[in-house]
Design brief:
The protein has 276 residues and is of the alpha/beta class. It has a single domain, classed as Aldolase class I (TIM Barrel, Alpha-Beta Barrel), CATH 3.20.20.70. It contains nine helices and ten strands. Strand 4, helix 2 and strand 5 form a beta-alpha-beta unit.
């Protein structure tokens, strides 16, 4: 077993990660149901600050937003870069919530560390081993998203790269894998959530937005994820999804986001989870 640091046999207690913020400590791990919300990408200062305040007031615990966006087409909107990071920092100051954003390139590591509270390693970089080693040397929580067609073992080994460099604050994120199915964006592996809660001590978050690619599927998949034991969810929310520069079809409106949260609170309570 090569993922000796990620496995529960060598670390019986669940890892709970504390993320300081102006509003207090946000926790990800056993006993909590943590909601990460916001648009796929930081599109502009005014739009982002507007939706950041909305999701904060609705009950989100962490803000998401991509400053650097990996896109299949080189002609698609790829984020605002450093300007986007500065907008995330402003949103953090205004809302008091910590922020998470994706790191794509080692050259941007210093800036992403400066402006964000959690570093996301996206699915396309799950096996970028040099990048994983670098983030393993920083004092920031690292969210490792499952690769497009990664096995659970490969995913745990990616987390192991971060852990073996000394960074114990690792979060796993199930975002669906690519299969033969074409009616959803990806195939959500809810079984992986239950398996990993038994196999590993690391917290696991589910991203029902990227997993399904369809707005109306986010709510039922989010509920199933929490029921299966997920420690939280990453949900895309946009004030005008039809105008979103990326991932509009899977983004919830603020009104739909409230509906999802109302249902999640009940499931979290049934599973003795604290909905911070």
């Amino acid at each position: 077993m090569d993922y000796k640091l990620a496995v529960r046999d060598n670390h019986p207690e669940d890892t709970v990660i504390d993320i300081p913020g102006k509003s207090g400590i946000t926790r990800i791990g056993k006993g909590y149901c943590t909601i990460i919300a916001g648009p796929c990408a930081v599109e502009s200062r005014d739009k982002y600050l507007e939706i950041a305040m909305q999701v904060k007031n609705m009950g989100a615990h962490i803000l998401r937003g991509g400053a650097f966006k990996p896109r299949t087409s080189p002609y698609s909107f790829a984020g605002l870069g450093i300007e986007g990071l500065k907008i995330l920092e402003e949103a953090r100051d205004i809302t008091g919530l910590p922020v998470i954003t994706e790191l794509m390139d080692i050259r941007d590591l210093e800036q992403v560390c400066r402006y964000s509270d959690i570093i996301q390693i996206g699915s396309r970089n799950m096996q970028n081993f040099s990048l994983l080693r670098e983030v393993g040397r920083v004092n920031k929580p690292i969210m490792v998203k499952r690769g497009l067609a990664a096995t659970i073992e490969e995913w745990l080994l990616a987390a192991e790269y971060v852990l073996c460099e000394g960074n114990e604050k690792v979060i796993l994120c199930e975002r669906g894998i690519r299969t033969f199915e074409v009616m959803t964006r990806n195939t959500v592996d809810i079984g992986a959530v239950a398996l990993l809660k038994d196999l590993s001590h690391l917290p696991i978050i589910v991203d029902p937005s990227h997993a399904t690619g369809k707005r109306h599927l986010v709510k039922p998949v989010a509920m199933a994820a929490v029921a299966a034991g997920a420690d939280g969810l990453m949900i895309e929310v946009h004030q005008n999804p039809e105008e979103a520069l990326s991932d509009g079809p899977q983004s919830l409106t603020p009104e739909l986001f409230i509906s999802v949260l109302d249902n999640l609170k009940g499931i979290a309570a049934l599973n003795n989870r604290i909905f911070q």
